[in-house]
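Journal club prep — side note

Before the paper discussion, L.F. wants everyone to see what a predicted structure for a comparable chain looks like in token form. Sequence:
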Amino acid sequence: MKTSNVKAFGTIAADADLKEMSIERREVTAKDIEIEILYCGVCHSDLHTARNDWGGSVYPVVPGHEIVGRVTKVGNEVTKLKVGDLAGVGCLVDSCRECNSCDHDLEQYCLNGFTGTYNGHDKHLGGHTFGGYSQKVVVDEHFVLKIPTNLNLAAVAPLLCAGITTWSPLRHWKVGKGSKVAVVGLGGLGHMAIKLAKGLGADVTLFSRSEGKVKDGKELGADNVVISTDAEQMKSVLGKFDLIIDTVPYAHDVNPYVATLAISGTLVLVGYLGDLDPMLNTVPMIMGRRAVAASVIGGIAETQEMLDFCGEHNIVSEIEIINMQDINTAYERMLKSDVRYRFVIDMDSLKK
């Protein structure tokens, strides 16, 4: 298969900084779309994979799965987009497309394992996939998304992970007008959960440990902000919420939030991977048919639905644009929650 060399930014080891490198991209096949990457969002998953926090990282790692750009080439069987169109690529670039999950547009739950945009098995070239911290990407048209032309392109990028990660549970649990939704944590995921839930017509509450987030939460659309360390404020919302989206990316106690669920309510974990600590107290769950669940990203059809919804309602992420060369500093700032609320890389800086 023909390939071309592409400039990228990645790391060769868990304890090494990201730096400029060269990677190979395949030339377009019949069903492929080549995209010049204009902007790429920075996700906590990028950092975790670069530093092998979850284990299993294969080096070199080139992160990035919040990709927006412009179509530069298409294969001769492509019908979805044409050269010059805006396009996006999220967390998935392939799946088996044959299992029950794939048949139901749930590629993120592919029973044979989806192919991640980075650090997944590259079925075409062998080895592993490389992400959006690069000049271009080549992806099968099924996994390429159409971008609304009325939105700020840089601010669209985080929708492809942070947006769909919160949109999917909102849709699955049928949030709409009159739903009472709470969001735990105000970061990259949390601020999108507020915007999207509000866009769907829900009454939205933010749970935060910080008084400093009250103003931001309300400006983003939250109807109420509850300080989760204040016993009286927590008591005031017991039994209230139909759905809680928990976006906190580290181990924490979810039991206080479970108690604020309404009968048959659900708390959905979207931010943390690992063991819950302390253990989950099942008494309020049993006594109120309450549930603790989890969710990951969304399928391609659902992601397109989310993008179309955002185009109709003028919803984008709150971002800080950085140059590619500043990514290592951005990672350190991200660990300190020093970003409002998502870094996005201007990929034109990679040309410097």
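L.F.'s comment for the group: The mean pLDDT is 96. Keep this in mind when we get to the figures.
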